[in-house]
Structure formats: C-alpha cells, structure tokens
Amino acid sequence: MHLPEPEIAQAVDLCKTATRLLCVCHRNPDGDAIGSLLGVGALLEQEFPQAEVGYHCVDPVPEMFHFLPGAFRVQVLPDPLPPPEGTVFVFLDSAEPKLTELHETHPQLFDGTYRSLMIDHHYSNPRYGTVNILVPDASSTCEIAAWLAEQAGWTITSDIATCLLTGLYTDTGGLLHSNVTPGVYRTVAHLQRRGGRRQEVVEAVFRTGKLSTLRLWGRVLEKISLTDEGGAISAVTEGDFRATGADTSELTGAIDYVNAVPGMRFSLILSERDGKVKGSLRTLRDDVDVSEMAGKFSGGGHKKAAGFALPGKLKPEVRWTVVEGE
Ligand SMILES: [Mn+2]
Fold first, then answer.
1. What separation in Å is there between the alpha carbon of 13 and the centre of ligand 1?
2. What confidence score (pLDDT) does residue 213 get?
3. Using CA atoms, how far apart are residues 83 and 216, in angstroms rounded to an integer?
4. Greatest CA span in the chain, whole angstroms?
5. For residue range 57-84, what is the model confidence (pLDDT) as tens digits?
6. CA 131–ligand 1 middle distance (angstroms)
7. Which of 239, 308, 240, 252 is nearest to 278 (CA)?
8. Cα(166) to centroid of ligand 1, in Å?
9. What is the pTM of this model?
10. DSSP string covering 124-176, please?
C-alpha cells in the first residue's frame, strides 16, 4: 500500500503545530476503532512530544480489548473542550461525524472551528476532516495507520504493532473475509516483524469467550430451524438473555454459525430487546440480496449482511403433524 505523499505531508504539518492532539474513534468501538485509537495515539505521542495526546470515545473500551497497551487511558471528551488554538482532533475509523456521537453535543468539531486529521477506510466517508487520509481499498484503519507510520518515518514499537494488528485481525474476521488482499498479509507480516504480538491478539479476540456468551450461542444454535424457502432461522428471547446472563452485544458473531448450514439461501437471527425484535440477515450466495429482504421490514444494509428492527415481541410457533400408523 502506498498513501498519497501530499496528504502525509499535510498530516505531519498539522500535528507539528499542535499542542494538543485529541484522538477520537467511533461509538460502540470495535477492534479497528480501539486498535487505531491506541496505535495512532501512541505514534503521535512519540513523534510529536510537544503535544499532549488524548484518547477518546463516547463508549467504554470493550473488555476483550483491555489487554491492549493504553486501553485504560481511553476517556470521554473533556468538558468544556480546550480552546481551538493548538488543538487538533484526530478522527479514526469513523465513516461520518455522527458515528463519533459528538455531532450534536460538539458540532464545533465538524464545522471548521477545530482543525482535524481524519483517517478512515469507509467508501462513503464524506472527508469531513481538515486533512483526510481516506483509503477505501484498505482492509482497516489500522492498516492505513501502519503505512502512514512507515511513509512518515515514524517508529512502530512492539506495543504499537500489537494495537494495529488488532484492527487488521478484527476487520478481516481473522484474515477470513473477502477484503483480505495480498497486501493485508504483507501488512500483518510487517507488523509482526516490528514485534507485534499476534498470539496475544488472536487469543484475546478469537479464542476467548465469556461463559454467558457461550451459553447464549448454545441457545441460538440449538434453536436453528430450516424453512421451506431455504432459510436457517434462530431466535433469542428476552428470557434467553436473562437465563444466560448475556447482554445483547454478546450475540455478535453467532449469525456466522447459523449461516454455516450447507445449502441454505440465507440465515436469520431474531432477537428480542426493549420492546423490539431485531433481525440479522446473512447470506453466502451471490444470487440472494438480504438488504432487499431487510428493506421489506424497513431495514437495510449490504447484499450479504443486513438487518432490521420492528416493534413487538417474539411468539414461538410449534407445528405438529400426525403421521398415520406405527
Ligand atoms: Mn474499520
């Protein structure tokens, strides 16, 4: 991967003039958000010692990422904000201002009052920063950060490499998704060579599951039923969440197992939460568009992964058939 030189020069100039570099990632942070927040923050701290670096997110760091160096330093934004002179915001992995959840409480972050550096890999990003490093072909924001460091001549330490590896692994589903290009392997190798602790990442992210999560997934898998239309469907009631002690975020990932039933056209998990039923749809097939299916229930998403939410609750339906004789 090669990033455009003018943007790198502008980013460096912006950081040089800052006395405060406030890094911000999106709400409900995933591995790429936290990995890039901590990795880029640490790089800036090291390369721009004149600036005080802040690590910010409206939501807390999920437990599975607590092993990352610096995770405990992530806080909500200071209130009131420091003056715009000398303050530069660094937005990470946030496809649009509202994903930081600061667009309403702190609109001055996005209206030109403050200068900002925006680093992201989402196609739809409207380039809302003062300087934008947007690489839609990159697997993850962490991958962009690794090459930014390399091209700018910044030192990637073992701790920084470990943070950046986390985003590369989570945004590619453990190097399994279709966004894994030869370049992704090259970046992973590069970060491992710089001391990135790959095994720590793999164990924390893919080999650790809370007991409550495993029990919830057990219920999901046990309840899979197959429909005549070629759907593999499961459902989770509020009772399931209560009985297993899992919260709704722990359902993330279970759909990939429901979607693994061979020969099915699509998979669906229905889950009850706060008076609503949420549906998650997936397909492995090119001739099925689950975003269209979700659209029928006022939802949306991508062709292969979509979702919807409807007010209501789940009612189980049992069908019995009488077989004569025996
Ligand atoms: Mn990402």
1. 25
2. 96
3. 47
4. 86
5. 999 999 999 999 999 999 999 989 999 9
6. 19
7. 308
8. 11
9. 0.86
10. T----SSEEEE-TTSS-HHHHHHHHHHHHT----HHHHHHHHHHHHHHTTTTT
Structure token digits, residue 100: 């930081």
120 CA from centroid of ligand 1 (Å): 7
Pairing type for strands 300-301 and 225-226 reads unpaired
Ligand 1 geometric centre to CA of 35 (Å): 10
Per the DSSP assignment, residues forming a β-bridge with 167 are: none
| Domains parsed from the chain with CATH numbers | 5-206 (3.90.1640.10), 211-311 (3.10.310.30)
Q: What is the pLDDT of residues 213-237, one digit of tens each?
A: 999 999 999 999 999 999 999 999 9
Q: How far is the CA of 325 from the centre of ligand 1 (A)?
A: 59
pLDDT at residue number 13? 97
pLDDT tens by residue, 231-255: 999 999 999 999 999 998 899 889 9
User: Mean pLDDT throughout 115-126?
Assistant: 94
Distance 100 CA to ligand 1 centre (A): 13
141 CA distance to ligand 1 centroid (A)? Answer: 5
Ligand 1 centroid, distance to 38 Cα (angstroms): 14
Tell me the residue length of the chain: 326
- In Å, how far are 3, 192, 270 from 184, measured between CA atoms? 15, 12, 34
CA Rg value for the chain: 22
Query: Tokens for 73?
Result: 């330093």
Alpha helices, DSSP H, located in the chain? 5-16, 31-47, 141-152, 158-171, 182-193, 198-206, 211-222, 238-244, 254-258, 290-295
**pLDDT on residue 320:** 85
Q: 304 alpha carbon to ligand 1 midpoint, in Å?
A: 18
- The first and second tokens of residue 22, run together, are 């406030």
Residue 135 Cα to ligand 1 midpoint, Å, equals 11
**Taking a C-beta distance cutoff of 8 angstroms, is the pair 179, 172 a contact?**
yes
Q: How far is the CA of 240 from the centre of ligand 1 (A)?
A: 30
Nearest C-alpha neighbor of 40 from the set 20, 18, 61, 24: 24
